[in-house]
Structure formats: structure tokens, C-alpha cells
């Protein structure tokens, strides 16, 4: 897993607060604020953070459903942000999305066969009997009977609907599948079935996932590497095991301590996050987590921490580790550290 599929560099997306052309702009929601990371071919890259931290906005920027204000993205060697019109439409088959709300994302007036078959029509790749055959195969692949092809979304349970959404997403053999809270709306027992399905499909089809959730337990279960996001910024990136065993950022540690342990007798120091997530309109100066951080120092409210690479595959943006900087050598410029971490 060393070949990059997706490179995200210094991506920003701000939403203006005022919509009216006549009123003064009262500032911006800094939904995604200078985010960089790489996703390697065949891996599951997890993105975790509390609700409102900018995960969906970031996923929509990557999917080219909304335009980035700044930054660069390369996907499979092409400049993703430059793609426009027909070229973009053609490339869309390579990056697909599984949405959070399996019911809202399926057209209630279309049969399952039409829904899963739509990508073939849009991209003009299969028609007639070939398409029918492929749709049946896809249904079986996601664990549904091909006899369901003429049924409508309302005839299915939430979990089954998410299977339909997954079949639609993988119909055109995409290179990247972005799963944004793909199981968050489902019952816990159904969640694990869908996660297992995603796992199996990855093995069978060699998919690469960008797996997004507010739930660190779910992200940890699925991911090879994990990025932790807080108020529009990534604060830590590491291999999943590393993050679990040796999380560095106080925010990551707080998120981890909130995961229930399998063994109820095991001792654990629970770090309780107090206070609300500050507004992304006027995020705290310095480190954005400083207002809720147990370890905050005077510098934290003054200066935003740079990304520090503690080892080749683990990077953290936190002043606590300022002394660890340079551990990986001083060859990389500071701005490259975040992008190449991991
Ligand atoms: N279209 C939009 N217009 C204005 N603000 C938005 C828009 N979409 C998202 N936001 C704001 O951007 C921030 C990040 O939202 P979002 O990306 O949905 O976070 P998450 O997916 O992590 O819950 C939130 O403060 C949200 O209110
Ligand atoms: Mg979201």
C-alpha cells in the first residue's frame, strides 16, 4: 500500500455567513481549514471527529459536489480540481459515494433495478440484457436476492436499503468509495453486517475507502489509517493500531477514552470532554482545541501548532510534542509534513 490514489493538499472550504448581496458579510464558517492527507490504493482511510467538524464538507469537496476555495487534490494522477464538464462527468465513475441516509438517497419512485442500473445509463456503459445481468449480480454481491429487482425502496429495511446504496456505488467499479456516516443511521446489529459487507467487497474488488464517521469505535474497526478532525482541521494522523495504542493529541485521547471497553472490569481513565464544540465561525485563536484541552499551555491559545511528525507514519498538531519535532529528520519542509505523514 504505497501507491497514492488521492492526495489532498491544503484544502479550504469556507461558507459565507451572509447570503444577501446587500448586507455586509459577517464572516465565514471555516468548515474545512487547510486540510492535507493522502489515501493509498487499497486501504481504508478513516476520518473521525465530532459532528460539525467538517467531515461531510470535506467529502463533498473530494467528490467534486462542491468547490474548494483553496488547495489542491490529485486523484489517480490527475488534477481533480481542474476537471470540468464532460471530463469531470466521465471521471465520476471512478469515485463514488455511499450516503448516510439510505432512504433519502434512493429515489422512491424507482425500482431497485432502475436505481442500481442508473449508473450504467448515465455513463452509457451497459444496456439491455447485459445491464440486467450485471444488476442481478450486484444485488447478489451485496447480499440481496436478485429477485428483488422490481421492488421499491420502501419495501426494504434500513440495512437492505444501505446494501442497495452500496450496490449503486460499486456498480461502475470505482477506484475510491467515500462512505460518509454510512452506518450511523442503522441499528448497531445491522451496522456490523454492513461493515462486514464493506470489508468483503474491499477484499473482493480491491476497493479503496475513505471511511467517515463521528464514531471512533466504528472508524477504528474499519480503518488502516485514521485522521482525526477537529473544527475544520486535522489534528492527528496515524495507523489505526498506533492511534489506538499511542494516541498523542489530547482530543484523540478524549475520543478514545469515550469508547466503551469490551471488558467492563478493565480500568480506564476516562477523559470527559467538557464544553461545547466552539463555533467554526470564530474558532479559537491558536490551537482550536485549547478551550477544551486538559493539557492546554499558554502558547496553545496564541499560536496554532504545526504538524509534527513523531515517526514516519504518525503526525500530530499539538504543542505538547514540540520537542519531538525533527525526530524524522529535517529534510521535509514543515508544509510537507502533514501531507506525507503515514
Ligand atoms: N452549505 C452550507 N452552508 C453553510 N454552512 C455549512 C454548509 N454545510 C456545512 N456547513 C457548516 O460547516 C460546518 C461543518 O459541517 P459538516 O461538514 O456537515 O460537518 P460534519 O459532517 O463533520 O458533521 C458546520 O458548522 C456546518 O453548519
Ligand atoms: Mg457529516
Give a written overview of the molecule.
This protein is of the alpha/beta class and 342 residues long. It has 10 helices and 12 strands. The protein has helices at residues 55-62, 85-91, 112-122, 128-141, 158-170, 188-205, 216-222, 240-246, 250-257, 334-340, and strands at residues 4-16, 28-40, 44-48, 70-75, 78-79, 95-98, 176-180, 208-213, 225-230, 233-239, 308-311, 314-316. The protein has an 8-stranded mixed sheet, sandwiched between helices. Strands 2-1-4-5 form a 4-stranded antiparallel sheet, with helices on both faces. Strand 9 and strand 10 (233-239) form a beta hairpin. Helix 3 (112-122) crosses helix 4. The longest helix has 18 residues, at 188-205. Mean pLDDT is 90; it is low at 326-342.
**Which small-molecule species are bound to the chains here?**
adenosine-5'-diphosphate, magnesium ion
The first-to-last residue Cα distance is: 11 Å
Q: Supply Rg.
A: 21 Å
Query: How many E-type strands?
Result: 12
Which residues form runs of ≥5 with pLDDT under 50? 326-342
Which structural class should the secondary elements be placed in?
A: alpha/beta
**Portion in beta strands:** 15-25%
What overall geometry do the principal axes of the alpha carbons give?
Answer: globular
The mean pLDDT is 90
Provide the spatial order of strands within the biggest beta sheet.
6-7-8-3-9-10-12-11
Question: Strands, helices and their partners?
Answer:
Elements: E1 4-16, E2 28-40, E3 44-48, H1 55-62, E4 70-75, E5 78-79, H2 85-91, E6 95-98, H3 112-122, H4 128-141, H5 158-170, E7 176-180, H6 188-205, E8 208-213, H7 216-222, E9 225-230, E10 233-239, H8 240-246, H9 250-257, E11 308-311, E12 314-316, H10 334-340
Helix pairs in contact: 3-4, 3-5, 4-5, 5-6
